[in-house]
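Hi L., both proteins are below.
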Amino acid sequence: MKVCTDSCVFGAWVTSWANSKKRVLDIGAGTGLLMLMLAQKSSGRIDGIEIEPACFEQLKSNLTLSPWADRFQALKGDVREFQFTQKYDLVVSNPPFFSSDLLSKSGTNRIARHSIELTLAELFETVTRLLTADGNFALLLPFHRLEEAVEFSRNYGLNIIFQVRVFHTRKHKPFRVLFYFGNQPVQEVKISDFVIKNDAGYTPEFVELLKDYYLNF
């Protein structure tokens, strides 16, 4: 799986809260992008679970070769059935939810890109089971699934703390949404927009967010 701009935005955005978290879980870790980004800004232990065999092997390799290998643990299996021995202060997921889109012909990509193995309802159920009492859940989704995610968060007792609409440019409609959920009461959801590019190139907000990760900034 290639590194996507929206995944990098999500990873950099989540690091705002990672430093205070001692135990972090990435559901659908892929090849480890989010885990590696989080490790650069935090000191806690980070686990990642991945079901697709080829992705899991690449995940293990990437984590082992990183400077933070002693803080990582790669878990292979289905998060719905895996027997976790602890709960987590932060759960993150950039899940394969493009359920209404055309499915890839590749079996690997079908698992990695689409909600064949794990539904959004199952993800929320799993997360609520794995979070500590004051834990948080960060989620990246296609924008057309915003209302669905809002409904599931209510059904499973998670409150939206932050909601960010992501745009390629201001000329385009939003294509991704970032959520940050928690068990704690929220008086008002903080909703904002994030734009990746303008006529001059990358926006100042994009450069500021990604400058510690993108080598050409």
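That was the first. Here is the second:
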Amino acid sequence: MRVPDHSDLDLRNTWTLEAWVYPRAPGDGIDQDLISKWDGVTDAAYILQIDGATGKLRLVTNNGITQSIILSNAVLQNNVWRHVAATFSNGTAKLYLNGALDRTVSGVLTPINSTQPLAFGREGNYSGGTLNGRLDEVRLWKVVRSATNIANWRKRRLAGTESGLVGYWRFDEGSGQVAHDATGRGHNGRLGTTTSADSWDPAWTTSAAPVP
């Protein structure tokens, strides 16, 4: 699923990425993308994914020349819903699993502003990085969410008007070609590559993350 490029989605000095993921085969040798704004070194910004070699959560930022790569300590389990989050504050990145801090890394590169679409479950216009699993409750913030907020709100529905929230996709539609942005900012996502069903479309499912 892809969301058209917009300045709201350019994450620079302070930001947070959140999602619920249900992986079927982490560590199967193929990187599986969760949230990405990425396409080659010169137009790549940030990507949150499952590392194909280890099955760990992987955050990559790109400054237009090179990348910072951060892996979680914990490995994602098969066929289990888990909440994942990454925060970035002026060069310090933190990874969270199920609301608990997993790893902190300093000296991380600040991502550039990319013209690529924001993509979920794959890598934008590239036919790779496909997630083998389910994705739900994707949230993008232009603020650093505290550990307390991440832990306390991961299982709670947001209003969509929270300060710093620039994108929120609940994937509650169940059918059709559009996943709506619950912030009201209009960053709606399109399934596949056309306005009609195509081979890149993810499948809707009634199995949702544990968020009422």
